Target: DUF3530 family protein
Amino acid sequence: MFRRSVPIALIGICLGAAALPAIGQQEDAGQAPEGEGNAAGEDTQQGVEPPSITMVHYGPGDAGGSLASLYPDQALELGQGENVFTGLLKRETVSERHGGVLVVAPSGQSPDQGVAGAVRTQLTDAGWLTLSIAQPAEPVADLPERVLEPVQPGAGDEGNDGEETAQNGNDAEGDSGSGEDQGGDEASKPPDMTIRVAQDSAAPTRDDEWQQRATDRLAAAVNVLRNENVGPIALVGVGDGADLVLRYVSANGATFPPGQFGMVWVDARLRPPFSDGLVAELGEGYSVPVLDLYDRDLQSERAEKRSAAARRGGFSAYTQSAIPIPRGGQAREQRRVSARIRGWLSDDLESTGGQ
Model:
């Protein structure tokens, strides 16, 4: 009796376990009709609201708006009217001031981004007041003129006497399926037209208006440094910021006292006319101190051309150095570029021991 009761108990347990999924299916099946009654897109759970996501986008003209919240003690509003922009002024962290440094970031980058951010934050430990600015937004090319030349009715239907259209459009006596296929082919055929793109639709360039806005930014920033009585001033251009520095210096270099002014080019990307005629633009025997830094990990023909031009032109205070120049997020923390600039500043620019 005992041996027979064991299998019977096992069978009962198995049947009870098999009944549990069936009960769950019945409960799910009972809930299904309730879900089918909901309107499309309606939440099936009462009282539960979908998550809300808010996205905020800063356009090119407003990208610097967040700098005031990130650095409320450093952000400065410069310029006037529509040309107002935000710069970052960071004072020296030592008792003795050696001068001021104006940093021009590459186009499309923040004044606190990449190499520009590293230079502006790290030179203050060596007694240099720094002011970092961004370039104006790049000009956007106008949409090219489009001339549409519609084809006259019947222009592409030589030899068609109109019977074909009637047969394709009205096929009551023929097969109805064939007529529908032909009608669909005719409807899907795009209309004939010619689009002629204007030949003068060139890529966006930095026109005179953009150059004026950019040099006005530099002028406003230089005036801030002068009002601070910083003494010697160095203009540091990163990437194509070096081109903007050159354009400002070529027009306003005479306004700086002798021996109190210099330029630093970091990974310079110059545009014409400086990329092709550096000596012609700056003149023979150019005596303003220049430090030209380029990435030693890259074979730069542009750096070699600049060095050769400076030798031919007899630039008396031109120095070119090859150092690692990191890209991306690492550039913000790297110190080699800032250390090289700091050593050059102490050797080539006179210190006034000012405020």
